Amino acid sequence: MTGVQTCALPIYRAQWGGEVAAAKMTDYLRPEKLTIYLPKKGGEELFRDARFRKDEFGEIVVYRAFWGDGMNYLNNQNDLVDPLIVYADLLATANARNMETAKIIYGEEIARFIDGN
Question: What is the pLDDT at residue 3?
Answer without folding.
Answer: 47
